[in-house]
Specification:
75% of the residues lie in helices and 8% in strands. The chain has a two-stranded antiparallel ribbon with strand order 1-2. Helix 1 runs antiparallel to helix 2 and helix 5 runs antiparallel to helix 6. The longest helix is centred in the N-terminal third of the chain and has 67 residues.
């Protein structure tokens, strides 16, 4: 009856609140992972910027000596100086980005991090097509956004059940115990509650409208999660192709050019 419907709605409401908490926890963990990746990438770019600055300083020194000996033009010295200035600007930008990334990671850390922070970032592994397909099929179970939307829909459907049960006759049971100085009394009464004609129609309509809205939100969330997943797959495939091109073509060619 109405009591069981209210109990079911309370359970679904608690489940929806737990889904919101899980989604918030997952979002915080995602921010921490992104902050760690940002710091690892910033430190890699900082190392490259420092090596580029060392190389630019060496080129400027060689060009300056050759210009002093008359073996190079002043225009060559000017170009080397401009390149050194450009590299130094890139180095300062990389240093600022590394400091900002480390500050963001420290803010998201659960416990205080040591003053000298050393991190280790393993290279990403390749993901097979079977694993991508399995993750695509498991989106409904693993996505906090979809799980929250599903819990919200179940909660609204529970509200609909409570509103509909209020329109049907229901059994009322009451138990009364009275204690006095010289006696005790108990009473048990039964009754049948009959709602008025067309009663609670507005509540049922509002509950059904809320359930329809929750169902539409669920479908929109499912579409958004699917689109975001496919976009992430495309970005991962593009990054894998770029890495393969670097390892097989660009880096070996650059190494041979440097040796020559």
């Amino acid at each position: 009856g109405a009591r069981s419907a209210r109990i079911k709605r309370a359970e679904l409401t608690g489940r929806a609140m737990m889904s919101d908490e899980e989604a918030a926890r997952w979002d915080l963990e995602l921010q921490a992972r992104l902050a760690f990746s940002r710091l690892a990438s910033a430190r890699l770019f900082l190392d490259l910027a420092r090596k580029s600055d060392t190389d630019a300083a060496a080129v400027l020194g060689v060009t300056t000596r050759r210009a002093d000996l008359g073996e190079a033009r002043e225009a060559d010295r000017s170009r080397a100086e401009a390149e050194r200035l450009r590299v130094q600007l890139s180095l300062r930008n990389a240093e600022r980005e590394a400091r900002a990334a480390e500050t963001a990671l420290r803010l998201l850390a659960v416990e205080p991090l040591p003053p000298s922070l050393a991190i280790r970032s393993d290279p990403p592994r390749a993901v097979s097509g079977e694993e991508i397909a399995a993750r695509r099929q498991a989106l409904t179970r693993t996505s906090p956004l979809l799980r929250t939307s599903l819990a919200a829909l179940d909660r609204e459907m529970g509200t609909v059940a409570v509103a509909r049960s209020a329109r049907a006759p229901d059994l009322d049971v009451s138990w009364l115990q009275a204690s006095e100085i010289d006696k005790k009394s108990w009473s048990l009464s039964f009754g049948v509650r009959v709602p008025l004609l067309n009663g609670s129609r507005a509540e049922v309509a509002r509950a059904e409208a809320s359930a329809s809205l929750a169902r539409a939100v669920l479908e929109r969330s499912r579409t958004e999660v699917s689109l975001a997943f496919e976009a992430a797959v495309q970005e991962a495939e593009a990054a894998s192709d770029a890495l393969r091109l670097l390892q097989t073509t660009i880096v070996p060619t650059a190494r041979r050019t440097w040796d020559l």
